[in-house]
C-alpha cells in the first residue's frame, strides 16, 4: 500500500483545498489517472496517480490538505481494511503525551516562527518535513523555490545568512500562528463577518508584506498614445490578435531589460541584487474572480504578436479558473493595468522580491497645441494621453533611474512602429 | 493507558541508592554528623539507614578530619566507608586526610592497596546560606594523585556510581548540588519534549543530551550534574528564542576527566561550573580538549563559572555571583555572535 501525498504546488500556501475527488473511493486507478482536484490560493491543479491500485480516500472533499500530507492510499487489488488501533503500550512513559493525529507536535523556534508569519506559512506545511524541531533554516528551505522558478514573493530575507544572534527586541516576540485562519469555537466569528476567500487572503499577505518591506517611491509621466492606439487598431486585424496599449507596453518594457538591468533584478540581500537575463513581465488581471498576475516569461525574446497571444490566453484562463502556478511565478517586473473607464492615475505596489512596478491608467482625451505650433499659431489638436507610473524600491533605485526608464518607455510608445517591426 | 509513574526526586533516588548499597554489601559503613534517625542527616539523604542497618550507620562528633580519617581507616582495614560532610565547605577541614592519608594509602605500602572510601559533599548555593555554606569547592580537590572527584547528576544511577567508586579502589569525593535534591531524576532517555539523552557507557561516564536525529550543533555545553538543569534551561532558550542549537555533555567523574570517546559535536564548546573563577575545573577540561579539537575550533573554549567573589548571604547579591541559566545563555550568544 502506498500513500497518495499532496505535492508542494507553490511556495505561498501552507494549505490547499481538496476541491473534488475525480476518482471515487474504492476505484481502481491506473498511472496518470486524475485522482483529485486541489485548489491553491491561486489555481486548481490536478493530482494524478503514480501507480496502479485501489484508491482509498483519507480526506474528504472540501477539507484542507497540506503539502506532504497523505490524502489517500493506493492498495493492491484487494481492498485493505485497516485494523483498529491496537491498545497502546501500557509501559509507563516519562515522555509527554503521544502526538495528536494531525501529526507530531512541532517545536518551532522563535526566529522560525517569525519567518513563518512573514511568509504566511502554517505549521502543516512544516509537518511534511517529518521533523519535530523546526528551525529558521527549515522554514527558509521550504520557501526556496527551485532555481529555474524563482517565486514572486521571494525576499532578500530568504537568502540572508542565519539570523544574527542577539537579544530579541520587544517587536520580535513571536506570535503563534498569526498567519493561520482562526476558526471554531473561541474564534469570535459572528454571522455578520465576511470571510474573505483564500485568494484574497493571499493578496493580503503579499500587499501587507510589500507595505512592510518595500520603501517605495513613485514617479508618473504623461505619454501621448495617439499613435500607439492607432497602430493597435491597424495591427489587431492584421495580426489576428488584440493589440492595445498593454501589449505595446509589455513589448516596450521587454526591450529595455538590458539597458535597465537594475530595475529587473531580484534583491538578494542588503546592498545586493541579482541580475536577470530577461524581462519576465507580470500583468495584473481581474476578471471578477480575484486578482491574478500571470507572467509573460522571457518577454524580451518575443514578438508583439506572441506577447499578445500569451496575454489573451491568460485572460481566457483567468476567466475559466485555469491559471497554473507556473503561469503566476517568476515575474521580475509587474505591469498593473488600470486602463478601464476614467482612471487617471494609479500608484502600484511593488511586489516583494521585485524592484519596480508600472501602472498604466486609462487614456484621456485632451486638447494639446498642434505640433510645430508652440506659439498657438498652428492651432490645437485633440490627442489621447495616458499617465504611466513607476513605483520603485528606493533602496535600490533612485528617482533619476525611474525617470530615465519612464522616458524610454514614453519614447517607445510615442514612436510605436518599432515595437511592431521587432521580430524578436 | 496507565498514568506514567513520575520519576523520583534526586534525594529519594540517592537515599534508595544508599539503602541498596548497604543491603548488598555488609562491609559498607556510613559515617556523618546527625545522620542517624530520626534526624536522618541535614538533607535527609541518610533517612532510615540507621534504623535498618544499626551500627553500620553512625552519627559522629563534629570533626570532619576525624570522620574522614575514620572512613579512610575503615577502607584501609578492608571495609568500605561512605562519609557525609554536612556542607561541602567543611571538606576543607578534611583536606589533610584526603591529600596525605586516604589518597596516598593506595600506593605507599609497597603494593596497591584498595581504598574504598567515598566522601559525600552537599555543595552549591542559591539558598541564601552565606559565604561558608554555599561554596562549590570541587576545584580544590582536582589533581590529587589517587583521588577521584565525582559529582551527582540527575542522569546517572547513584547506586551504580557509588559501587563503581568502591570498585575503583581509590578514595573519591562525591559532590552533590543541594538544589538538585528536590529535582527529579531523568529517565528513559527523555529530558523533555525537545531533548533526549543517551545513557553513559559506564557508571561514571558521560551523558549526552541532544535533539533526536541531529548530529550538527552550534555549541556543546559541558557541565557537571549540579549545573545540568541550568544548562538545559539555557539550551531551551537558546534554541527557541535564538535558533542556536546546543548539546550537553554531563560527566559524573570530574577528575580524572575523560570524555570516554565522546567528542563534542558543536562548532563551539562551553564549559560551565558553579565554582568561582580562577584555576577552575573548566580550565582543566579545556586544556584536555584543545589538542583533540585543535583543528575544529573556530574560537577559544568559553569558560563559565561563578564570579571571583565570596558568596554573599543576601539572596539578591548571591544571584549576582553564581551561575544561572541566563549566564550560560549569554556566554554562548556572545561567543557565537
Automatic annotation (TrEMBL), chain A:
Domain Lipoyl-binding: residue ranges: 7-73
The entry's keywords: Acyltransferase, Lipoyl, Transferase
Domain (2-oxoacid dehydrogenase acyltransferase catalytic) ranges: 195-419
Basic and acidic residues: compositionally biased ranges: 173-183
Enzyme Commission designation: 2.3.1.-
Disordered: annotated span: 76-100, 141-192
Requisite cofactors: (R)-lipoate
Pfam families associated with the record: 2-oxoacid_dh, Biotin_lipoyl
UniProt record similarity statement: Belongs to the 2-oxoacid dehydrogenase family.
Name this protein carries in UniProt: Dihydrolipoamide acetyltransferase component of pyruvate dehydrogenase complex
Native species: Actinomadura luzonensis
Biological classification of the source: Bacteria, Bacillati, Actinomycetota, Actinomycetes, Streptosporangiales
TrEMBL record, chain B:
Domain Transketolase-like pyrimidine-binding: 8-183
Top-rank taxon: Bacteria
Cofactor requirement: thiamine diphosphate
Record's keyword terms, sorted: Oxidoreductase, Thiamine pyrophosphate
InterPro entries, per the entry: THDP-binding, Transketo_C/PFOR_II, Transketolase-like_Pyr-bd, Transketolase_C
Record Pfam families: Transket_pyr, Transketolase_C
This protein's name: Alpha-ketoacid dehydrogenase subunit beta
Amino acid at each position: 500500500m502506498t500513500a497518495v501525498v499532496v505535492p508542494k504546488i507553490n511556495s505561498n500556501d501552507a494549505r490547499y483545498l481538496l476541491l473534488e475527488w475525480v476518482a471515487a473511493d474504492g476505484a481502481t486507478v491506473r498511472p496518470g489517472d486524475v485522482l483529485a482536484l486541489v485548489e491553491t490560493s491561486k489555481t486548481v491543479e490536478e493530482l494524478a496517480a503514480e501507480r496502479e491500485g485501489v484508491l482509498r480516500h483519507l480526506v474528504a472533499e472540501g477539507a484542507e490538505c497540506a503539502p506532504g500530507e497523505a490524502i489517500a492510499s493506493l492498495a493492491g487489488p484487494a481492498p485493505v481494511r485497516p485494523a483498529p488501533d491496537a491498545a497502546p503500550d501500557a509501559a509507563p512513559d516519562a515522555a509527554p503525551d503521544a502526538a495528536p493525529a494531525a501529526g507530531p507536535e512541532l517545536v518551532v523556534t522563535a526566529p522560525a516562527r517569525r519567518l513563518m508569519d512573514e511568509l504566511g506559512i502554517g505549521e502543516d506545511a512544516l509537518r511534511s518535513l517529518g521533523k519535530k524541531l523546526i528551525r529558521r533554516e527549515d522554514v527558509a528551505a521550504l520557501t526556496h523555490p527551485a532555481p529555474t522558478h524563482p517565486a514572486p514573493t521571494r525576499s532578500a530575507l530568504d537568502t540572508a545568512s542565519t539570523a544574527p544572534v542577539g537579544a530579541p527586541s520587544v517587536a520580535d516576540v513571536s506570535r503563534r500562528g498569526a498567519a493561520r485562519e482562526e476558526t471554531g469555537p473561541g474564534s469570535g466569528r459572528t454571522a455578520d463577518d465576511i470571510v474573505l476567500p483564500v485568494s484574497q487572503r493571499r493578496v493580503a499577505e503579499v500587499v501587507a508584506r510589500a507595505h512592510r518591506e518595500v520603501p517605495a517611491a513613485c514617479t508618473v509621466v504623461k505619454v501621448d498614445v495617439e499613435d500607439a492606439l492607432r497602430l493597435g487598431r491597424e495591427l489587431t486585424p492584421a495580426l489576428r490578435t488584440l493589440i492595445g496599449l498593454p501589449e505595446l507596453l509589455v513589448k516596450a518594457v521587454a526591450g529595455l531589460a538590458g539597458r535597465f538591468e537594475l530595475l529587473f533584478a531580484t534583491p538578494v540581500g542588503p546592498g545586493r541584487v541579482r541580475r536577470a537575463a530577461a524581462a519576465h513581465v507580470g500583468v495584473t488581471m481581474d476578471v471578477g474572480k480575484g486578482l491574478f498576475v500571470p507572467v509573460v516569461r522571457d518577454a524580451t525574446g518575443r514578438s508583439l504578436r506572441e506577447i499578445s497571444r500569451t496575454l489573451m490566453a491568460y485572460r481566457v484562463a483567468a476567466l475559466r479558473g485555469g491559471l497554473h502556478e507556473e503561469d503566476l511565478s517568476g515575474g521580475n517586473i509587474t505591469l498593473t493595468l488600470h486602463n478601464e473607464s476614467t482612471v487617471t492615475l494609479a500608484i502600484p505596489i511593488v511586489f516583494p522580491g521585485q524592484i519596480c512596478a508600472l501602472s498604466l491608467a486609462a487614456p484621456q482625451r485632451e486638447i494639446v497645441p498642434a505640433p510645430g505650433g508652440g506659439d498657438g499659431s498652428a492651432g490645437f489638436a485633440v490627442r489621447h494621453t495616458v499617465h504611466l507610473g513607476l513605483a520603485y524600491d528606493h533602496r535600490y533605485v533612485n528617482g533619476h533611474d525611474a525617470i530615465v526608464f519612464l522616458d524610454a518607455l514614453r519614447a517607445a510608445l510615442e514612436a510605436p512602429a518599432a515595437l511592431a517591426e521587432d521580430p524578436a | 493507558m496507565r498514568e506514567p509513574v513520575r520519576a523520583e526526586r534526586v534525594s529519594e533516588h540517592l537515599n534508595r541508592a544508599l539503602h541498596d548499597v548497604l543491603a548488598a554489601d555488609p562491609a559498607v559503613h556510613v559515617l556523618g554528623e546527625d545522620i542517624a534517625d530520626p534526624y536522618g542527616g541535614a538533607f535527609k539523604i541518610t533517612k532510615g539507614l540507621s534504623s535498618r542497618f544499626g551500627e553500620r550507620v553512625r552519627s559522629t562528633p563534629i570533626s570532619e578530619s576525624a570522620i574522614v580519617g575514620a572512613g579512610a581507616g575503615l577502607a584501609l582495614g578492608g571495609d568500605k566507608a561512605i562519609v557525609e560532610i554536612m556542607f561541602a565547605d567543611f571538606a576543607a577541614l578534611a583536606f589533610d586526610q584526603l591529600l596525605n592519608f586516604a589518597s596516598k594509602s593506595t600506593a605507599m605500602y609497597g603494593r596497591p592497596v584498595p581504598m574504598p572510601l567515598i566522601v559525600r559533599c552537599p555543595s552549591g548555593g542559591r539558598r541564601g546560606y552565606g559565604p561558608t555554606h554555599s561554596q562549590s569547592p570541587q576545584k580544590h580537590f582536582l589533581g590529587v594523585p589517587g583521588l577521584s572527584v565525582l559529582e551527582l547528576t540527575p542522569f546517572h544511577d547513584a547506586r551504580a556510581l557509588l559501587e563503581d567508586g568502591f570498585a575503583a579502589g581509590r578514595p573519591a569525593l562525591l559532590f552533590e548540588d543541594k538544589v538538585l535534591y528536590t529535582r527529579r531524576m531523568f529517565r528513559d532517555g527523555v529530558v523533555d519534549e525537545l531533548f533526549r539523552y543517551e545513557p553513559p557507557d559506564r557508571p561514571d561516564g558521560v551523558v549526552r543530551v541532544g535533539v533526536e536525529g541531529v548530529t550538527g550543533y552550534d555549541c556543546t555545553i559541558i557541565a557537571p550534574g549540579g549545573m545540568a538543569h541550568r544548562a538545559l534551561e539555557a539550551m531551551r532558550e537558546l534554541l527557541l528564542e535564538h535558533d542556536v542549537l546546543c548539546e550537553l555533555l554531563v560527566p559524573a567523574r570530574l577528575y580524572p576527566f575523560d570524555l570516554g570517546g565522546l567528542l563534542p559535536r558543536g562548532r563551539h564548546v562551553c564549559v560551565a561550573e558553579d565554582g568561582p573563577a580562577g584555576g577552575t575545573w573548566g580550565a582543566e577540561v579545556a586544556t584536555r580538549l584543545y589538542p583533540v579539537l585543535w583543528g575544529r575550533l573556530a574560537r577559544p573554549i568559553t569558560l563559565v563559572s561563578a564570579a571571583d567573589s565570596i558568596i554573599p548571604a543576601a539572596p539578591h547579591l548571591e544571584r549576582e555571583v553564581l551561575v544561572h541559566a541566563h549566564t550560560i545563555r549569554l556566554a554562548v550568544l556572545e561567543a557565537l555572535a
